[in-house]
Design brief:
The chain has 207 residues and is an all-alpha fold. It has helices at residues 2-29, 32-39, 43-49, 53-72, 82-99, 101-110, 121-138, 148-166, 175-189.
Length: 207
Amino acid sequence: MVKQERAVRTREALIRSAAEIFDREGFTGASLTAICARAGVSSGALHFHFTTKAALANAVEEAAARILRSITDRPARARSSLLQHLVDVTHALAAALRQDVVLRAAFGLGADAARPPHADLRVLWQAWVARAMRRAEERGELCAGVTAEGAVTAVVAATVGFEALGARDAAWLSRRTITQFWLLLLPTIARATLRPELEAGGARTPA
């Protein structure tokens, strides 16, 4: 049991250390030696868990996919609209990207041309936004002339852009930036009678 717990801790340390190196150096620039040193383990211990750098990158993406699902699967606030829930989730995602290097690194790995993504977080995010917006459309929350498809394009393009820019400048992932985006978009896509209820600043999230 002790050995199993130690193995789990070692694996988690390697994943986090790899994420920190991938976030800073990218997939190509990251070295297994640097990852081992940051995790405080031997190369033998690394190869026991991960046979290649690609396998380690895959593990980072898998861990990040679980984090992303924990964000998108959060229940909506009581009596909130589907559009409000979408706003809240984008704020939560931006906060997590600022704070969690595993999530941030995995988004970067998905855009790295040096390797095909194993679990492309941008694709997973797009799929979730599409489902959320279709439900909002079905419930009549979108204004006349706005389609779920068009609204998804705007939301995904903007949020993925914030993620990419935020990798080097956290201001792009600030609550203020996400709020400004929704202040511009909500009057364009939301049904007029719903707009007074919508909070562009989202639920209480870190600044």
